[in-house]
Amino acid sequence: MAQMTLRIHRMLSEGVEAESTGLREIPVAFSAGEHLKHVVSRLAGDDPTLATALCGRNGPTIRAGILVVHNDRIINRREYAAVAPEDGDEVTFLPMLDGG
Amino acid sequence: MMVTPQLWGYMGKILRVNLTDGSIVEEALAPETADRYVGGSGFGAEFLYREVPPGVEWDDPDNRIIMASGPLGGTVVSGTGTFCLVTKGPMTNQAVTTQANGFWGAFLRFAGYDALIIQGQSPRWVYLHIGDGTVELKDATAVLGKDTWESEDAIREDLGGTKMMSAFGIGPAGENLVRFAVVAGDRGHVCSKNGSGAVMGAKRLKAIAISRTKGTIPVFDNELLRAKAKELDHEAKTAKGGLLDKWGTGGLFSTYALAGTLPTKNYTTNIFPEHEDMNGEYLRTHFEHRNKACWGCSIRHTKYIKVTEGPYEGYEGEEPEYENMAAWGSVIGNTDAGGMVMLTNLADKLGMDANEAGWTIAWVLECYEKGILTREDLDGLDMRWDNVEAVAAMLEKISRRDGVGDLLAEGVMRASARVGGEAPNLGIYVMKGTTPRGHDHRAAWPEMLDTCVSATSTIQSGSRLTSPALFGHPPVSDPFSPWEVAGANAKIDGWYVFLDSLGICRFITVHPQLTMDCVNAATGWNLSISDALTIGRRTINKLRVFNFRHGLDPALEVPSPRYGSTPTDGPAEGKSVADHFAWMKSFYFELVGWDRHTGKPLAHTLESLDLAELVDDLEA
Q1: CB pairs under 8 A between A and B
Q2: Distance from CA of B464 to the nearest CA of A (A)
Q3: CA–CA separation, B452 vs B93, rounded Å?
Q4: Minimal-distance CA residue of chain A relative to B243
Q5: Across-strand partners of B23?
Q6: Less crowded by CB within 10 Å, the N or C end of chain A?
C-alpha cells in the first residue's frame, strides 16, 4: 500500500500531542484510488481526538476554520474533496488564525 | 447636598498636562464619556476628535497624546496594566490607537486617573512624574540621549531609587523624530504604531513615570469580578492549545511558516526552512530564561532571555515576541536566533517600531542585492541578507538620523519614493502610510484588508485574531474568498477596538462572554457582546471621520505593489489578492455602512451609532 503523512496542528484539539512545529505527524497507509477525504474520515473514525480536531460536528466533512496544505500548497475545500493522494504526499491541517 | 453618583470601575478623573506653559490640571470624567466610549481607545478617539481640528499636523504643539486605561485597568483581572495611546501620527498624518502592556495603565489608575492628556510643546526637555498626590514636570537633561531601558533606570535614580515605578518614554529615535519611533516602557513593552514616539519627541517630552501608589479601583461587585476573572484566566491559559503559556507568541512562528504567512526576505519568497531553529520552543529550550510578568498576570507570556550559543552567546535582554522574531529573523533573511535576540533588543532600546524598521531594512537589503542602492549610498555598510552586524549599525544610524539613516528614518514608503525608479515597487507598506504587521498578508487576506482600511493605523477588526465563530458566525472556510474575507472582517468589526478600551491585554480576553462578565462586574453595567460591538464601531467611525477631516484619501487604502503581489512560491503560490482587492474593499465598505465608492460613513450609520453630530462634519 502507498503511504502518506498527515500533520495535525495541536491548536485544533486539546488532545493533539505535537512536535516543536506544533504538529503531530501521522503516517497513514492508503489504497490506490482512495480519496483524501476518505482517508481522513477513516482515521477520524478510529481516533476521537482527530475526529474532534478535523471534523467537529460535521461528521466526515472537514470543518470550517481549518487551513489544509497539500504538499506545501494551500488548497480550498473543493480541492480537498477532490484530492487523490499519491505515495509520499504530505497533508497539513492548520488553524486559520493569527497572533503575536 | 448634591451627591455625585459613584461611577463604578472608574477613578473619575482625567489629568491634563500643557507642556507649553507647564500647567497641570485635573478634570472630572463625564459619565456619558464613560458610557459612550468606555476607556482606552474610545477615550482617545473622543478627546482627539474634540481637541485636534483639521490643520493641526502631527508635530504641531496643538496635537494631543491621550494615554488611557479602562474599567478593568488595575483590577484583579489578569493583564490589566495595559493602556492605549491615541494621537495623530507621522506615518499617515492621521489617527492612531496603539496599546502596550506592562504596569503603566494600572499605576495610572492607582494614582487616581483614568486618562492622561498631553498637549503643547515644552521649551526644554522634560519628563512627567505622577506620584502619590503629586504631579510634576522634571528636567530631563540627564536622561536625554539614553535608550529606553537606560531612561527607565535614570528616571528611577532621579526619583530616589524607587523600585515601584513604571516609565514609558522615547529613545534616541523619538528624540530625533524618526517617523516610526515608539513609546516604550517596562523593559520592552511598546506603543509601536504610527510614530507615537516622534509625536512625544516633537513635544520634548522624554518619558512619563508613574510611581506605584496605594489607590484602589472602585469596582461594583468585587466577589463576582474575582470569580469571572478566574474563569477568564483559565480560558486564556488554555487558548491556542496552551501555546502562548508554554512558548510565548513565538510558539506560532513555525505555524506561520507552514501556512505561508511568515514574511521572508522582503516578500521575495514564501519559504523559510530554518523556522524550527528560531521558533518559540527553540528559544525556550536552547537559551536561558527567567520570568517577566505584566501587572497581575498569571500567564507571563514574556520572558527575559540569555543567548547561550552562536556569535551572540552571553547576550541578555527581553525574549523576542513573534513580531520581533519576524522582523529580525525571516524578514531580513537572518537565520541566527542569537542575532535575532540582539536586534530585537537593539531596536526596542533605540525606540523604533520593529515592523516598520524591519520592512525598511529588508527593502534596503533587496535594493542592495539588486544594485539599486550601493555600498557608497549606504555609508559603507555591506547590507547583505543575513549580515546582522550591518543591520545593527544601520539601526543605530536611523535612530540618530545619521547619514543615510536620515533617509531611512522616514520609513520605507517615503524613502523608496525618494530613491525612485523601481525602488517604491519593492517596499512593503499601505499607500496611505500604514505599516503592516509582521506577517505575509498575501496568504492572510483578512489582515491585509484590515490593515489597508483601518482607522486605527494598525489592525482594526482583528478577524485573524478573533474567530468569527466566537460570535456565533461560521468561521472562514476559504481564506482566499473575497466574499468570505470581507464578511468576516465586517461581522466582528468593533470587538477588537472595544477590547482596547478596557485596559486589558488582548491575550487574556479570549472569551467574549467572560470578558463582558468582567466588565459588567467592574462597572455595574449590563452590557451585551452586541453592545460592545456597537461601542467599538462608534470609536471606529469617529476615528474614520477624524481621518477624512485630516485628509484621508480612500484611493490610498490599498497595498503597495510588493505588499499586494502574488507569491511565486510556498503555500500561497499563485494566490493573487490584487485581482480581488478593489471588490473586497468595496464590499467591506458596504457591509459596515460606508459608501461603497468613497468609503465615507453613511449618515444613517453615524446616526445608528449615536454620532449624528458627525454627519455635518463629514460633509463640511
Answers
A1: 100
A2: 5
A3: 15
A4: A11
A5: B18
A6: N
Strands B126-130 and B205-211: parallel
Residues A43-81: tens digit of each pLDDT:
888 888 888 788 866 666 787 778 899 999 999 888 888
Which tens digits make up the pLDDT trace of B548-563? 999 999 999 999 999 9
Taking Cα atoms as reference points, which of B383, B356, B387, B389 lies closest to residue B369? B383
Q: Which residues lie below 8 Å from residue B373, measured CB to CB, with a gap of 6+?
A: B364, B367, B383, B419
Give me the residue from A11, A20, A72 closest to B240, CB to CB: A11
CA pair distance B170, B145, nearest whole angstrom = 10
Its ipTM equals 0.86
Residues 6+ apart with CB under 8 A from B223: none
- State the pLDDT confidence band at B54, using cuts at 50, 70 and 90: very high
Cβ–Cβ gap B447/A21 under 8 Å:
no
| pLDDT, tens digit (0-9, with 9 covering 90-100), for B460-483 | 988 766 777 778 887 777 889 999
Among candidate residues B302, B317, B251, B254, the one with its CA nearest the CA of residue B100: B302
| C-alpha distances in Å from residue B615, one per residue of B44, B363, B401, B536, B606 | 20, 41, 42, 18, 7
Strand, helix or coil at B526?
coil
Cell 507598506, residue located: B429
Cell digits of residue B476: 472562514
Task: Give Cα separations from B578 to B96, B429, B532, B574 (angstroms).
Answer: 26, 14, 33, 11
Query: How long a stretch of residues is chain A?
Result: 100
Is pLDDT of B298 > 60? yes
Nearest Cα to B416, choosing from B560, B556, B559?
B560
